[in-house]
Amino acid sequence: MTEATDFLGRSIAVGDTLIYPVRQKSRMWLKRLVVSKVESDIIHGNSPQGRRVQLTNLNNTIVVRPGKMTPEIAVAF
C-alpha cells in the first residue's frame, strides 16, 4: 500500500487539515476538511459543518495545517 500524499507531495495523516476544489457547473471554490481516516487512495474526514466527506482525487488536495505541529512546522504556517 502506498502512502497518501497531496499535490505538493506531502504525506497526509489523521488530524491534518486539507483544502480541495469543488465545482458546480461554472462555479468553483475551495472547501476544507479535517482528516479522520487515511487509506492509500481515499481520504475520509469531516467538513467544518460536521458533514462526512470522502475524497478520492488526492492530486488536487493540499495540506494547509498538519495535525501534529512541531516547532519547525509551526514557523512555516
Plain-language structure description:
The chain has one helix and five strands, in the order E-E-E-E-E-H. It has about 80 residues and is mainly beta. The chain has one domain. It has a five-stranded antiparallel β-sheet, with no helix packed on it. The longest helix is centred in the C-terminal third of the chain and has 6 residues. It is globular.
Brief overview, please?
Helices cover 8% and strands 42% of the residues.
Keywords, separated by commas or semicolons:
77 residues, globular, 1 helix, five-stranded antiparallel beta sheet
What is the number of beta strands? 5
CA-based gyration radius: 13 Å
Sheet having the most strands: 5 strands, antiparallel
* Biggest sheet strand line-up: 4-3-2-1-5
Question: What's the topology here?
Answer:
Layout: E1 17-24, E2 27-38, E3 43-46, E4 52-55, E5 62-65, H1 71-76
Antiparallel strand pairs: 1-2, 1-5, 2-3, 3-4
